[in-house]
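Progress against Task 2.4 (sequence-to-structure conversion) is shown through the following example record, which the project officer requested during the mid-term review.
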Amino acid sequence: MGERFEKIKTRIITILLGVPLVFLIIHNGGTIFHLTVILLSVLGNIELWTIIKNREYRPSLLFSILLTNFYLFTRLSYEYELNIDIIYFNLIFLVLVFLIFAEHFVFKKNKENMVTNIAITFFISIYIGYLLSYLIFIRKLEQGHIYLSFVLFSTWMSDAAAYLVGVKFGKNHIFPKVSPNKTLEGSIGGVFGGVLSGLLFSFFAPLNLYLLAFLGLIISISGQIGDLFESMIKRNFKVKDSGNMIPGHGGILDCMDSILFSVPVLYYILLFIL
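Structure tokens generated for the chain above:
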């Protein structure tokens, strides 16, 4: 009981210290925001690469980071109006692809699982870089800083509600082989938490209450799918947490697994309804 209390206390302290800083970075935008996204992408790459290499696979950390930041750079080129011809983006991507092939075919002595290692390198860059890059796209929208703040607020509300309802009422485990602690009752509680987050957020943001409630619903559902996907990765590679960088919460990926799915979904919904 004491250990569990200490963990909850550590999580609360981390939230109280970290949340204001995160909201401040989102509100200010600009270079600090973009550098934060890049930093998250690099740390996420290192965490996932560490998890995978401990299971005797050897994807390329260097090129997964480079390819990840290629996705981010393509987004930033629009943000900073660099007007780079699409031909050059395609050329850079092709060069990176050839270099990844060359590293595994030519420079790595151990050719075991070579094709798998190449595939994992691309997977890491897409999972972290491509999905995370939608943070930049949403921030660029009108009132984008409000929508990004809402994504985080709604995700946290949904996670908290899912945890509380799951602990109190959870009986039916929906994906026991992927995430043994996830229950149907907790998932439903998370959805209600997402909707409630929209109702609460409407008091602080100049956005339509019904729109926020709808977006909270979508964020909760897509975020839970993202959480399950990361659980599947951890289950597959037999680890409990992606890391221990964030006290009381685990690793970087443990904290952003939900938004990796909810942010791209939210972006396209906003494009169609705004």
